[in-house]
Amino acid sequence: MKKYEHVSEYLADLAPMQREVAQIMRELLQDAAPEANEKISYNMPAIEQNGHVLVYFAPTESHLGFYPTADPIVAFKDQLKNYQTSKGTIKIPYDKPLPVKLIRVIVAYRIQQVTTN
């Protein structure tokens, strides 16, 4: 498996549709967390603030994987009922629009977690 150092390098290797969705997510995260820095962590795009990764994301063949850590999955379980989730994962199918408002709320939640702890 190729090891990535930069998000732009990661995105360049994606299939066109996956790259388009990933770029939209990238821009959404940059807007939702303007003080965060993007990085590659666990060989996928992530944003970090105050030395803590806020969220990760990675396109797959069938969905966009959004990894906000475990706490938001529990905190927003009612809003996530239409998505397949696991301990720290939200699977967003490509045939559904990105839940922009929900992603923003989850990112704000994560920012609060890393700035108050």
UniProtKB/TrEMBL annotation:
InterPro entries for this protein: YdhG-like (IPR014922)
Start and end residues of each YdhG-like domain: 18-111
SUPFAM superfamilies for the chain: YdhG-like (SSF159888)
Name the UniProt record assigns to this protein: YdhG-like domain-containing protein
